[in-house]
Amino acid sequence: MGVRIPEAASDRRAGYKVGERYDTGLLSFVLPSKEAEAYTGRLLPEGTRMIGNFRPKQKDYRPAAAFSHLGLAEPETLVRGLRRASLCPDGLDSPEGVHLRRCVDLFPHEFRPGTTRIYVRSTIEPTVTPPPASPGP
Questions:
Q1: In terms of CB atoms within 10 Å, which end of the chain has fewer, N or C?
Q2: Region for residue 114 given its phi and psi (left: phi exceeds 0; alpha: psi -120 to 50; beta: otherwise)
């Protein structure tokens, strides 16, 4: 996906699902909220504002590639403390965005005061070679 994980990130989780039409990459990590804000600020183009989840999905929502397989809630079901944005690498020249290789949906969620989980989901065309598997923790 080209999303760089900050060194200070904890609770790093990732998954890759091979689908019939599209593959999906999942990534999640936790940062202190101030660092998460700085991180998303370096990823988003200047002047871009993230939006809240004004139309949350039901708690039993299961997308094609679910974060629940990583032991996490689906970000689309969260309301309080969640923001979202969609980014594509075409013309994205933000400091972190220059590393982006795939379009992503980005969901920062401040799940408790001072602590934010970053969720990233990317749909990948099946003709693209999947990323190499990395060793587990």
A1: C
A2: left
CB-based contact 108:31 (threshold 8 Å): no
Label residues 30-59 b or e (16+ Cβ within 10 Å = b): bbebeebeebbeebbeeeeeeeebeebeee
**pTM of the predicted model, to two decimals?**
0.85
Categorize the per-residue pLDDT at 99 as very low, low, confident or very high, splitting at 50, 70 and 90. confident
The answer to whether 8 and 35 have CB atoms below 8 angstroms apart is: yes
Question: Which tokens is 90 given?
Answer: 């075409």
End-to-end CA distance of the chain: 20
Q: Which of 69, 128, 77 is nearest to 103 (CA)?
A: 128
Count of other CB atoms within 10 angstroms of residue 124 = 21
Domain coordinates in residue numbering, the chain? 10-124
